[in-house]
Specification:
Blueprint (H helix, E strand, L loop, with lengths): L2 H6 L12 H4 L2 E6 L1 H4 L10 E5 L14 H16 L18 E5 L3 H9 L4 H25 L7 E5 L15 H4 L3 E5 L42 H9 L20 H28 L14 H16 L3 H23 L3 H26 L15 H19 L6 H18 L2 H19 L5 H24 L4 H11 L1 H4 L8 H14 L14 H22 L5 H23 L3 H4 L3 H23 L4 H18 L5 H19 L19 H7 L13 H19 L24 H29 L10 H30 L7 H33 L2 H16 L1
Parallel strand pairs: 1-2, 1-3
Antiparallel strand pairs: 4-5
Helix pairs in contact: 4-6, 5-6, 9-11, 10-11, 12-14, 12-15, 12-29, 13-14, 16-17, 16-27, 17-19, 19-25, 20-21, 20-24, 20-25, 21-23, 21-24, 23-24, 24-25, 24-28, 25-28, 27-28, 27-29, 28-30, 29-30
Function: Ethanolamine phosphate transferase involved in glycosylphosphatidylinositol-anchor biosynthesis. Transfers ethanolamine phosphate to the first alpha-1,4-linked mannose of the glycosylphosphatidylinositol precursor of GPI-anchor.
GO molecular function, one term: mannose-ethanolamine phosphotransferase activity
Pfam families: Phosphodiest (PF01663), PigN (PF04987)
């Protein structure tokens, strides 16, 4: 995951220290986009001179996006005209064997315009025309300046990635991984003509990439991008950087066969050096009798293989020596991969065991926290020899892990010790063993009791089967979005599966079916980032404007005129936000004075709206829920490019219906509406609700399980319902135009995070409201109800943690460490998301509680009361 550490370091330096061709060269110059250029500059060095472009050239709203490329080329042309450093003393070397000159021109306009306006746009075509022109200027200038000198110049023109038709990259498709590579100049072989007839060179002949089999009648060669590093090192006459895993393409070089053999030998030794380090690390951290060496390339056979290659070179059989060294290099790369994955199965077992044992610990602690479950008196076999033997085995294995801890990194050591600690926590005392056996016995008798009613057993089996299907659909929906639509259909049918969740009103049930089915439509639509339609955003915003005003009037009391006028103000803000998004889609406005006013408005809104809710919205449930809904709607609206706002609206309807159905059994005194309950003081809630659920009921009840399952479902839908908006692969820079048009990765990452968090923070508010009405927490921290409420939050989080552990085990098994960077990063992000679900549930519940109950005036009154009581 290269992007995360880069952002954390503010894109000023490379996140990983590694050797490079720039480090090895005698002098190097770099011009280009600031965030990229500065990442290539080694720390504390003077031989690499970097000149980043000004920030104003990174403005994506410019009418002429080619200015950044023109600036780079003009800087280079001025350097060649007025500086003699490049052509002076060309054969100079440093004390650490650095030699050669290198110039790196980073032409970023094509990438910027491709992301912002897509490759089929008119702007992108203009960038390509300009790119042809500036490359010719560079070549012409160097050719003219190098006449009469002993300079030998090689040119490499390439790209780090391709791009899809919707302006993304990073996945494994041909459009994203196949890039152009043009190499010519000193030391490079010329083109090879294809000896065939004209019919075989027709445009209908294409290869596996969908490209013509020829390049204007010339042979097209293909290499891996990693091979560029040893190729450039060979052209400069410097050692191959130690971290390189590329193979030098000697067929590109116009040098004698003897030198090619020496180059492949140097490439083999460089890869072999990495293999020896990895081999030593693995052998040192394992018992010799259990260690299994890479079978295709054993260390004892390498000397004989090298002797064979050396003898081939000595006898003048250079071609055979080259092939032998290439074969050895390929084996060494396979060996690196083998040792890299050596402990994967064992560590995978440790991590999976940790998830299972941690879930068992949570269930055991939750179950035995219940007041009505009595621990049975088990006989003396709780203290038997077998339990002691298990403890001894666990402790002994832990000591073995600690013995090799100095050879392992911190991560693998922790992975091995954590399951041992969890086993001991379940087994180290008679009380813990009694709790574990009590839970198992209670669940067994509960499921298989003789007097168990058939209807109840049928309900339990139906809910269990539906829950497993829903979880599996959510898990596979990470990869196949249409499965999220099927999950929404199952979600719509849940009232028929669980009778306790079925509303009495047919209108509510019908609305639940319609809204859940509507929510299931969005995963079938193209992912956000593939298209842009500000008209849809504008129309949706206009529709939501009167709906927000009506919602404010519905939950307000007739005496609170300030709150009603606040509803009109919020509706006006939604309308202006819709206009801002639509206006920024026109290039005339993006480059005019109105852009500044839109930026000021956008930043002011996301700051002032939460403050206005805290200060002006009364601490009653309905107004607070509606107020925070608008707070999260407006930023999402300002950063929408397609149907995000429509999705949020339907998502909000489903979430509100969930809240209504979960709280339908509450009986309120004096015909008080649910929306009118005070959230700032807990006494008013408990006095208004007559049939609170008992705190002594088992934490493992059906209601708690259903709420955790629904929370996970809505959390995943909110995250992936519009596509993987967390991925840079689908991030559209135009979504931030209402806030900034400058290409600032750190700022755009913050805005992207805000966009991601809006649906989830809104869900946290509703989830907290559900917990409030279940009696699951109290606003006051000084009474017994509050302590019980806090423990109830922990219990709900525990059930959520068990379900999230089941999801996390799936994604841990599917972790990748090879393939495209998007495949690797996506597998890691999915695993982290699954791991974070339980923590998100706990934090969102506490944060939502504060959002519903926090009041500046009540806090001031409480502090004044404490001061007065202290003086009294």
């Amino acid at each position: 995951m290269f992007v995360v550490p880069v952002i954390l370091k503010r894109w000023k330096m490379n996140p990983v220290e590694f050797d490079s061709v720039l480090n090895r060269s005698f002098l190097a110059w770099i011009w280009g986009y600031k965030e990229v250029v500065m990442s290539f500059v080694p720390p504390s060095t003077n031989h690499v001179k970097a000149t980043p472009c000004p920030d104003e050239l990174s403005d994506l709203a410019k009418t002429n996006p080619t200015e950044i490329d023109r600036w780079v080329v003009n800087q280079f042309l001025d350097f060649v005209d007025y500086s003699g450093d490049f052509f002076d003393n060309l054969n100079a070397t440093s004390s650490d064997y650095r030699q050669g000159r290198m110039i790196f021109l980073h032409l970023d306009a094509a990438d910027m315009v491709g992301h912002s306006f897509k490759p089929d746009s008119h702007e992108y075509t203009e960038v390509l025309r300009n790119l042809d022109n500036v490359v010719f200027q560079v070549y012409h200038k160097l050719t003219a300046k190098s006449r009469g000198t002993d300079s030998r110049i090689a040119y490499i023109l390439t790209s780090d990635h391709g791009m899809t038709e919707w302006g993304s990259h990073g996945a494994g498709s041909f459009h994203e991984t196949v890039t152009p590579l043009l190499i010519w100049g000193s030391g490079i072989v010329g083109p090879v003509e294809i000896e065939t007839n004209v019919n075989d060179l027709s445009e209908d002949k294409i290869d596996m990439y969908g490209l013509p089999v020829h390049n204007y009648g010339r042979l097209r060669r293909e290499i891996q991008q990693a091979d560029l590093c040893p190729l450039m090192a060979s052209l400069l006459g410097i050692p191959i950087p130690v971290n390189s895993i590329g193979q030098v393409p000697v067929e590109f070089l116009k040098i004698p066969e003897y030198d090619k053999a020496k180059l492949t030998r140097a490439n083999w030794l460089q890869i072999y050096g990495q293999l020896k380090i990895k081999y030593s690390e693995k052998k040192k951290s394992h018992f010799s009798i259990l260690f299994r060496e890479f079978p295709s390339l054993k260390m004892s056979d390498i000397n004989n293989m090298e002797n064979v290659c050396e003898s081939l070179i000595s006898s003048g059989k250079y071609h055979e020596a080259i092939q032998k060294y290439k074969h050895l290099t390929s084996l060494a790369l396979n060996g690196l991969n083998y040792y890299h994955k050596y402990d994967r199965l064992y560590l995978g077992f440790c991590v999976s065991s940790t998830f299972c044992l941690w879930s068992l610990v949570i269930l055991c602690r939750l179950f035995n926290r219940s007041d009505h479950v009595e621990c049975r008196n088990y006989p003396s076999y709780l203290n038997s020899f077998y339990w002691t033997l298990i403890n001894c085995i666990v402790i002994g294995f832990g000591l073995l892990v600690l013995t090799f801890a100095n050879s392992w990194s911190l991560g693998p050591t922790v992975y091995q010790l954590v399951p041992l600690i969890l086993v001991l926590s379940l087994n180290y005392s008679r009380t813990r063993r009694k709790q574990l056996l009590t839970m198992i016995n209670y669940l067994w008798n509960g499921l298989f009791a003789k007097d168990y009613r058939v209807s109840s057993l049928y309900t339990i089996c139906s809910i269990t089967f539906a829950s497993i299907c829903l979880l599996e659909m959510l898990i596979w929906g990470f990869f196949h979005r249409y499965l999220l639509s099927l999950a929404c259909l199952l979600f719509a049918l849940w009232p028929y599966i669980d009778d306790s969740f079925r509303p009495h009103e047919k209108s509510i049930l019908s609305l639940w079916h319609i809204s859940c089915c509507g929510l299931g439509i969005f995963p079938l639509l193209p992912a956000i980032g593939s298209n842009m339609c500000p008209t849809i955003v504008f129309i949706t915003g206009l529709i939501l404007t009167p709906m927000s005003i009506i919602s404010f009037r519905f939950v307000s009391s007739s005496q609170n005129h300030l709150f009603i006028w606040l509803g009109y103000l919020f509706g006006f803000v939604i309308c202006l936000s819709s206009f801002a998004v639509y206006a920024m889609s026109f290039s005339v406005i993006r480059t005019g004075i109105l852009k500044i006013f839109i930026h000021i408005f956008s930043w002011s809104v996301i700051i002032l709206l939460p403050v206005s809710v805290i200060l002006l919205v009364p601490t009653r449930l309905g107004p607070r829920m509606i107020g925070w809904t608008i707070v999260y709607l407006v930023p999402l609206l300002l950063m929408s490019t397609y149907y995000e706002v429509s999705f949020f609206a339907v998502f909000a309807v489903v979430t509100y219906l969930w809240f209504y159905i979960e709280t339908k059994t509450l009986i309120l005194k004096d015909n008080i509406r649910v929306w009118d309950l005070q959230t700032s003081t807990d006494d008013s809630i408990h006095s208004a609700i007559q049939n609170q659920y008992s705190y002594s009921e088992s934490p493992l009840n059906l209601k708690r399980f259903r709420q955790s399952l629904f929370f996970i479902f809505l959390l995943i839908i909110g995250f992936f319902g519009t596509g993987n908006i967390a991925s840079i692969n689908s991030f559209d820079p135009r979504s931030t135009f209402c806030f900034t048009t400058i290409l600032n990765p750190a700022l755009m990452a913050i805005l992207l995070l805000i966009k991601i968090m809006c649906p989830m923070l809104f869900l946290g508010v509703i989830y907290a409201a559900i917990q409030l009405h279940n009696g699951n927490y109290s606003s006051s921290v000084n009474n017994q109800k509050s302590k019980r409420g806090y423990h109830s939050i922990l219990a709900q989080t525990g059930v959520t943690a068990v379900l999230s552990n089941l999801i996390a085990i799936h994604f841990f098994v599917w972790l990748k460490d090879e393939g495209s960077w998007l495949d690797i990063g996506t597998s890691i992000s999915h695993y982290v998301i699954a791991m974070s679900i339980s923590l998100a549930g706990f934090l969102f519940t506490l944060l939502g509680k504060e959002m519903l109950s926090f009041s500046v005036s009540s806090n001031i009154r409480q502090k004044l009361l404490k001061v007065s009581n202290k003086h009294v």
